[in-house]
Amino acid sequence: MTGSVILVGAGPGDPGLLTEKGRSALQNAEVVVFDRLVSPAILSLIPATAERIDVGKQASHHLVPQEQINRILLRKALEGKRVVRLKGGDPFLFGRGGEELELLQENGVPFEVVPGVTSALSVPAYAGIPVTHRDLCSSLHIITGHAKAGAQLKIDFDALRRTGGTLVFLMGVSTLPEICIGLLRAGMQKDMPAAVVESGTLPSQRKLVSTLAELPQAAADAKIKSPAIIIVGKVCALSDRFDWFENLPLKGRRVIVTRPADRNGTLCCSLRALGADVLEYPCIRTAPRDPAPELDAAIETLSAYHWLVFTSPAGPALFFRRLRASGKDARALAGLKLAAIGPKTAEALATFGLTADLVPAVYDSEHLAEAMAQVEGPVLLCRASSGSDVLPQIFTKNGVPFTDAPCYDTVYESPDPETAHVWLQTPVLVSFTSASTVRGFVNSLPGADLSNVTGCCIGRQTALEAEKHGIRVAVSKQATIESLIECIKEV
Ligand code: SAH
């Protein structure tokens, strides 16, 4: 059976600017063929099971010629695969999207197009430049500044000047002097405001605002490189007043996020939205136990317990997995009281139609243990095999019988130590959401100098673990992601 190809615009770089439709196409893809301009954060959405084909093009020397890209798309679709062709910005704006569809159409391969947020509009917006403004211009023109090797630019500068509109040039870094001279010769004023924006919408975005006459020198002095867009027009003068991006609270700060990959979405998104440069560095992963002997045995005699305790949002789903494996269902929990360490864990229980009877006022194991010190046992603790001693100790001290039933193991991983090593050379914040993320982080970087690190920790236990490894810490007021983000903003 023939597969299909979805041409997806990935947007300009900020992963938040990928459309909903683009995201779901990516998540369902079996093959993803992508370009150089697609940012790593978006590539991280590609399912692990999907084949990735990098056809990234470097300016002037194409890594994979266009005809070959067209043939790859056709071949994979004819193999029956769901193919996503992921392109920077919008696939039809200077993206050769049309060329890629021709061969598919000729061969009867079904295709769809998911438009993307183009850099031509979004990069100016992230530089505080509205591309039109009623008082300043009445049209917008998007032009390629790319000239075929050895050839002259073919741009009608006279016509462009006469429009009086805003001009946006893509692919124009190397031809910037020619573009500016062309416009000046066509009679545009020397002091017409003009700007160049490099790596727009990304944490590394750089912006230069100058005049038409002076922009080429300013860009050369600042060593502006591709990808960058050039904007010419009076609207550029608004750039400083409207620059919201430079003023975001975490602009210029680097944060390494150590949560497991399947749980880091909210934190990474929120930090990026606040302007931070985020390195997704999942250094632990939860591996469900199958079988889970202690838990499986406890499930056989579940009605003997008074309390069932969950210390992480992963717990409830894993518990129910074992419950189903033993041939039982939710009815086996009748009469049991339920405790959750915090609101996220309580939410996880709620997805199974269950309400937690106890959530401590402060979401950590000490407060959970205190709140449970006087309960009637026996208690079944459903948690990680490497869970802290705090709960068992308090139960032992108070004579509350309990069973510690590990339902998952925490496995250490080293996602990309090379980038992490580079990031450690300058001040960097590292978010720790559990003691095991601290251990995973330290494990993944043996011998590394951690003196530039400030560990932003979700609770006291986590902070204690970080301090053990000589890491300077800041602790969030509450053990929630929202509070951790506040803590990161305040460091
Ligand atoms: N289809 C893309 C454009 C492809 S042409 C789109 O709609 O955005 C490639 C050019 O786009 C680059 O040379 C540069 O001029 C511009 N560009 C793409 N991403 C950019 C970014 N993040 N910052 C600045 N310019 C960018």
N/C terminus separation: 56 Å
What's the total helix number?
Answer: 18
- Report the structural category: alpha/beta
Number of strands: 20
* Ligands: S-adenosyl-L-homocysteine
Q: Compute the gyration radius: what is it?
A: 28 Å
Q: Uncertain segments of ≥5 residues (pLDDT<50)? A: none
Based on Cα principal axes, name the global outline: elongated
Major sheet characteristics: 5 strands, parallel
pLDDT averaged over residues: 93
The helix content is: 25-40%
Biggest sheet: strand arrangement: 3-2-4-1-5
Portion of residues in beta strands equals 15-25%
Write out key terms for the chains shown.
single chain; alpha/beta; five-stranded mixed beta sheet; 20 strands; elongated; binds S-adenosyl-L-homocysteine
Helix-strand blueprint:
Blueprint: E1 4-9, H1 20-27, E2 31-34, H2 40-43, E3 51-54, H3 66-78, E4 82-87, H4 97-106, E5 111-114, H5 119-126, E6 140-144, H6 157-163, E7 166-170, H7 176-185, E8 193-198, E9 206-211, H8 215-221, E10 228-232, E11 254-257, H9 265-273, E12 277-280, E13 284-288, H10 293-300, E14 307-310, H11 315-325, E15 337-340, H12 343-350, H13 365-372, E16 379-384, H14 390-397, E17 402-412, H15 417-423, E18 428-432, H16 435-444, E19 453-457, H17 460-468, E20 472-475, H18 481-490
Parallel strand pairs: 1-4, 1-5, 2-3, 2-4, 6-7, 11-12, 11-18, 14-15, 14-16, 16-17, 18-19, 19-20
Antiparallel strand pairs: 7-10, 8-9, 8-10, 13-17
Helix pairs in contact: 3-4, 6-7, 13-14, 16-17
The protein binds S-adenosyl-L-homocysteine.
